[in-house]
């Protein structure tokens, strides 16, 4: 990816015109810099999620944590949020304090091994009052046998008695309005349509209320005396006063009716904290997260290749598996977050990143395979027809074979731009699983006719698209959108995937007995490869000696300085003034050697830190207490997908694009550069130990340092340029873009596998043999 999400592209016409002001949303989503996300481990039954397997019933609940509080919690499909957030407000002798605004927080894993590595995505969250009056400890995890999330709340009064109150903001049915809520001493309830929740505690509430949300201020609900409400609502449940310390258990149950939601909450409470947590963890003879981690055959050696004792790779394994839907097996999403969510309108349904992009999907499936997970990548491959465009795609009247830009996990189209790398990568994944011996040749042949041949044919011939707003004619390798979903043209990163996809499609076609197809795919790959430099390398560029890869070329002439399209509030610039690292994908997949002259010529321009900030891509980082300097790269120069440099405002706040918006550093590029360094070091055979150590010390360690205290790797990290965010960013740590980004974790895992193997994990031998000898 990064797929340009939210307001970024979809269609430029959908953006609010410059200078126009949108109304402040009645409700928003929560802060998206998560320090924890979780769900239960569920075992497949014959490659699908259904009851009756070794983990019993299938729990379809996911939660997230930010600023020390429970934030978006999903039930049903993975994008179906039912809660915005739940906080604890504490009345003290000297005033009211609210978790988040008036506390500091710390996120820890609740269940770890002897080395401190996480064994499950269960969390201990500690929030401390800034005035030292109380500490709240929360333990958060799901019930693996029910649609419920378990929250233990431990309140410690430090300067006199305190009275805590739960403040719950439902966003049922993935919207912040249209809810119906009720409150009693026994339960807080809410519903919209067929989505119901019931929050119950181990003891009754001392007082409860349900009220309408006013001015987006949920805390005002503490004063409410009403016990029912409709629309955008707030539910509160007051606990008894605490003199020293008290422990409360709460469960939020979900269901398709009120009885089911209430029963889930009651049953989980009856089972009790210890047993529910033990089942979640997979302790003893119970089957849970410990068992999933134990099934990852390559995890031990990837831990050995890490620089942090294996903490981040173990967390990454959990994060990648957590972010899979539990109805549609293999449906891997981009992130359990809604970027810049605290300014995103929640009155309308919004998936944010909780959706399928075949590019991110490929990265995640390949990373899970790198860990030795043999089941999830196969389920992912088998899922892919769900998001391939064809006669059964709702609304499609055009040519098929390509894969949807962005879709719900059930295949419902959301964005319908054509990105040719997203059509090539499913072919690449199938070839990889076949060569690993995990996908049988018989099944491969079946998927060749059903899915892979239509995809390969589209990469050769393109076609006329007629789906939603999109009525374009696609002529490969010119892509309607490149990997950042903002521009059309000849893209090095897209072309690398297309060439690799066609070469391995040739192998698959040959195995399937389609010699004509095999010849066509290989011949087309040869043609595309022969024109890479002529289409995408300038010799008259504005930077350095003028010789380098363009990020994108909209025509056949890389030297004519034609302008790219304006995006994300940034003005259009000549194509030679926009650099990115996408050309390194040519090396990763085996289309070009690491010492190819055009590749080598581009690196100094990409790495020039003396360049004017608008065009600059590389930023190096130092971290307190850590020796060394660590590299990071932006998506590209002139990137506007980030916070405003003048005000610190969120990207696209109030529906407007601003010239001051600026994309930040993405950790995935540190991983990509580490893969390039490995390819360069391995030109004459397996890299020597000193070279591998340098890669680990530089690129592996950098990605570990970019992670937050919950061991989650963000989409973007703060590079210190311009005004700080109101959230108070730390240089080298995540912004409010999206955390965790599944692709970030995938790139880290793949880098460890590559270092461990001594060769790039997702390089393709037949591609390398054909073009990069």
How is this structure best described in words?
The chain is an alpha+beta fold and 773 residues long. 28% of the residues lie in helices and 19% in strands. It is built from 18 helices and 26 strands. A nine-stranded antiparallel β-sheet has the order 6-7-8-9-17-13-12-11-15. Helix 5 crosses helix 17 and helix 8 packs antiparallel against helix 9. The N terminus is likely disordered.
Question: Which terms summarize this structure?
Answer:
eight-stranded antiparallel sheet, 773 residues, alpha+beta, 18 helices, single chain, nine-stranded antiparallel sheet, 28% helix
What is the topology?
Layout: E1 36-39, E2 61-66, E3 69-75, E4 81-92, E5 95-98, E6 103-109, E7 123-129, E8 134-142, E9 148-157, E10 163-170, E11 179-183, E12 188-192, E13 195-201, E14 207-212, E15 228-231, E16 233-238, E17 245-255, H1 258-271, H2 273-281, H3 289-294, H4 299-305, H5 311-322, H6 358-371, H7 376-383, E18 406-407, E19 413-415, H8 420-435, H9 441-461, E20 463-464, E21 473-474, H10 492-511, H11 515-530, H12 532-536, E22 537-538, E23 548-549, H13 584-588, H14 597-606, E24 618-623, E25 626-634, E26 665-666, H15 667-681, H16 689-706, H17 742-757, H18 765-771
Antiparallel strand pairs: 1-2, 2-3, 3-4, 4-5, 4-10, 6-7, 7-8, 8-9, 9-17, 10-16, 11-12, 11-15, 12-13, 13-17, 14-16, 18-19, 20-21, 22-23, 24-25, 25-26
Helix pairs in contact: 4-17, 5-17, 6-7, 6-8, 6-17, 8-9, 8-10, 9-10, 9-11, 10-11, 15-16, 15-17, 16-17
